[in-house]
Design a protein that fits this description.
alpha/beta
C-alpha cells in the first residue's frame, strides 16, 4: 500500500502544514473512524466538537477550524475538495482487467494500444480501436468500429455498440449500455414501423457514467456528451441528446430525445426532461423536477410538491382538483369588483 508523507501531501495540495511533516498516511477515512496512518477531513464547522476525539494521523480543515485542533493538520480553503484529491492519490481500487484474458475474443483487425487489458469473456469486434492503457472488464462487448481513448476504463458487462466513440480518461460502470437504438418509430395504420438509428454516440474526455445507465445512439445525427460530464446510475439519455461540458446528472434522470443541456448544469435525481428543447448554461434543477419547457436563464429551478403527511397531502390534492372551479369564481369576483368600482 502506497504511503505519502504530510509534507508531500501539503505540497501537492498547496496546503499549510502544521505538525509532523514526516508523518505518513496510507488511507483516508471519516472523521469519527480514522485512526493511525489515516487522514481525514472536516468540511463543516458544525462537526468541530468531534475534532478533539479524532485519532487520525492528520486532519484537513479550514483556517477557521484549525484553531480547534491540536494535532497534525493540513490547512486548506476547501477540505472537501482536498479530500477528493487525496482520495485519488491513495485510491486502492483494482483494475477492471489485467493483461489479455485467454477467454477474451479480439478481432484480428482490432487495434490495441500499449498496455491494454481485456477481461475474461469480453468481445472486441472488427475495426475497434483501443487507446493506450484502456481497461475492458470481464463480459464487456465493444462493437464494430468503436473507439475508446487512452486510459478509459470499462467495468464488467458494459456494452458499447458499433461506431461509438469515447474519449480519454473515461470511466464506465458495470451494466451500462452506450449506443443502443433510440426510440424511433413511425405509425402506419396502427402498426409501428421502426426507424433505423443511423447516428452514433460521441463522448468526450474525462466523462464518468454510472452503473446501468443507457445512452441511445442518434437517429441521423449523433448523441453528444461533452468533456467532463458526470452521469449517475440508472439514467436514460435518449437519442440526439446533447449535454454540455462539466454538467452533472444525478441518478434515475430521464432525458427525452433531442434535448440540449448546456454547460456547468446540475441535474437533480429522478428529474424528467421533455425533448426537442434547450436548457441554457449554469442551470440547477432540483430533484424530481419535471422540466417540460425550455430554460433560457441560469438559476435554480424546482417543481413538484415537497413531502407532507398523508393527511396534508390528501387535502392539497383535493384542492388541486378544484383549481379550475376556484379560478372561475375568482374571475367572477374580480369582474364584480371592477364593475362596482366604476
Amino acid at each position: 500500500m502506497a504511503a505519502l508523507t504530510l509534507a508531500a501531501l501539503a505540497e501537492k495540495l498547496g496546503a499549510e502544514l502544521r505538525g509532523d511533516a514526516a508523518a505518513e498516511v496510507t488511507a483516508i477515512a471519516g472523521l469519527g473512524q480514522a485512526g493511525s496512518g489515516q487522514i481525514t477531513f472536516l468540511s463543516s464547522s458544525k462537526y468541530r466538537q468531534h475534532l478533539q476525539a479524532c485519532k487520525a494521523t492528520a486532519v484537513m480543515l479550514t483556517p477557521a477550524d484549525a484553531e480547534y485542533f491540536d494535532g497534525n493538520a493540513l490547512i486548506v480553503k476547501d477540505p472537501y475538495l482536498a479530500y477528493a484529491k487525496v482520495a485519488q492519490w491513495l485510491d486502492s481500487t483494482p483494475a477492471s482487467a489485467v493483461d489479455i484474458a485467454p477467454s477474451a475474443y479480439i478481432a484480428p483487425d482490432a487495434i490495441l494500444g500499449e498496455g491494454v487489458a481485456v477481461g475474461h469473456n469480453a468481445v472486441i469486434e472488427s475495426g475497434v480501436v483501443l487507446g493506450d492503457h484502456v481497461q475492458v472488464g470481464p463480459g464487456c462487448f465493444v462493437g464494430k468500429g468503436a473507439r475508446l481513448g487512452s486510459r478509459t476504463k470499462l467495468w464488467a458487462n458494459v456494452s458499447i455498440y458499433h461506431n461509438v466513440v469515447l474519449g480519454d480518461d473515461c470511466l464506465v460502470q458495470s451494466g451500462t449500455v452506450i449506443g443502443s437504438d433510440g426510440f424511433g418509430y413511425a405509425n402506419e395504420k396502427g402498426q409501428w414501423q421502426k426507424i433505423p438509428q443511423l447516428g452514433t454516440v460521441r463522448i468526450g474526455n474525462r466523462v464518468e457514467i454510472g452503473a446501468c445507465t443507457t445512452i441511445d445512439r442518434g437517429a441521423l445525427e449523433d448523441t453528444l456528451i461533452a468533456d467532463g460530464v458526470i452521469i449517475d446510475n440508472q439514467c436514460q439519455i435518449a437519442h440526439n441528446v446533447s449535454i454540455g461540458e462539466n454538467t452533472a446528472v444525478a441518478g434515475a434522470t430521464v432525458m427525452a430525445g433531442s434535448l440540449k443541456v448546456g454547460k456547468h448544469c446540475f441535474i437533480g435525481g429522478a428529474s424528467v426532461f421533455n425533448g426537442h428543447m434547450e436548457i441554457t448554461d449554469g442551470v440547477t434543477v432540483t430533484g424530481m423536477a419535471m422540466v417540460m419547457r425550455p430554460i433560457t436563464e441560469p438559476g435554480v429551478y424546482s417543481s413538484g410538491i415537497p413531502l407532507q403527511t398523508n393527511r396534508e397531502w390528501r387535502k392539497t390534492a383535493a384542492r388541486v382538483l378544484k383549481i379550475e372551479e376556484m379560478n372561475k369564481r375568482l374571475k367572477s369576483v374580480e369582474k364584480k369588483l371592477e364593475k362596482d368600482s366604476q
